[in-house]
């Protein structure tokens, strides 16, 4: 049996952010064609916040070429990745995306 593949990282918001109750982060791990291979959603109480997504290695042709899409939705606004980020990076920096 093949061991599962776990991809990990940290979501970072560059500006000071007092994360209000009810904040939720969503992380998707995709291949270079943009196909979602795994995802996770979780409550966030503060940033930076660590994340992990477990993948079936049989679906991952090249583990070194994985990409990440992430979003943090809070009562104070939405932050996300404007472009797919390399999963190999330890930190994924989120930018405000809701125009406020």
Brief write-up:
The protein has 100 residues and is mostly beta strands. The protein is built from no helices and nine strands.
SS elements, strand count: 9
What is the H/E order? Answer: EEEEEEEEE
Rg computed from alpha carbons, rounded to a whole number of angstroms: 14 Å
Low-confidence stretches: none
Mean pLDDT: 91
Strand content: over 45%
In one word, what is the shape?
A: elongated
Termini Cα gap: 49 Å
Number of helices: 0
Range of helix content: under 10%
Provide structural commentary:
With 100 residues, the protein is mainly beta. It contains no helices and 9 strands. Strands 2, 3, 5, 6, 7 and 9 form a 6-stranded antiparallel β-sheet that branches. Strands 4-1-8 form a 3-stranded mixed β-sheet, with no helix packed on it. It starts with a strand and ends with a strand. The model has no long low-confidence stretch (mean pLDDT 91).
